[in-house]
Please model this.
Amino acid sequence: MKLTTLDLDRFCVFKKAEMTFSPGINVFIGANATGKSHLMKLLYSIVKTKRDCNGGEAANSEFGARLAQKLASVFRPDGGAIGRLVHRTAGKSNATIRLSADHGEAYFTITTQGKLSLGQETLPKPDSSVFIPSREALAMFEGFVKAYEERELSFDETDRDLCVALSGTPLRGPRLDAAKILAAPLESILGGRVVLDGGRFYLASAQGNLEAHLLSEGMRKMGSLLHLIVNGSLIKNGFLFWDEPEASLNPQLVTQVVDTLRQLAAFGVQVFVASHDYLLTQHLALAPKPGQPSTPMRFFCLSRDSAGAVLVDQGDTISALAKNPILDEFAKYYDRQRESFGQAPE
Model:
């Protein structure tokens, strides 16, 4: 299954928005508070709910109830009131969401009173769905799922889901052979394999095991990505949603992340990323290196108009976007740099 379109009406910061996705990599850019993370969490919640449903005769009612619970756990509105996800207007209102795939769709509404009504749900069950938040998870992994399920923590459910995905054991057989191709460059950067032993993560190298807590945060993020590949959480016909991959990463590692995202998309994973990073977005916009797969992409820029409404600009290339706040800010920096050396801005 590949997601193809998303139509929103009065959901969160969006009064109305229509998006067409690439089967490969989809990149969301935009200023803070324009809804990038909200989009990622909405898509993830729908796909993950479908992945976790049992199916059968009660599939539709189960999906609706589970989706309402998932949205509450992922967005964490006060008191779990998903009615707060409806775009704020005077009086009562409804949010309408329609997510279409190459086979099937999910259509539902949310009222300001917090009722989710499922209109239609015919999505096929995906093989996997992974959401990677901007903060890394290897260091907090030990005991996190148990603590999350038994106590009230100030984390949303994407952190818990990621820890569950990380707990998976390595693949075996032909599937592991395919995963090793994706894992090899990451293992080279880390200098070893990531292993889970006694509830803790370690980097296993020729020098022995090194606790994940002793690795830099950037290396732990790369280690998480490596382990998700090796244990099969990121597999063909699956989904990866990654919020700010560039956080805590040296530019050299950002370049490696781009290469890995291209490889995952070529492997059959549909990728969605939200980024503020110039280097990551520009590397994704470039033609692939010799020997790299050609990956279809789609870029989305979210911005607000004079009335505060969020607008969505989209195109198959980053240059097709009418606005690019990342590039605009770098252009301003370039002008300031020229001025500081006594040169007039171009």
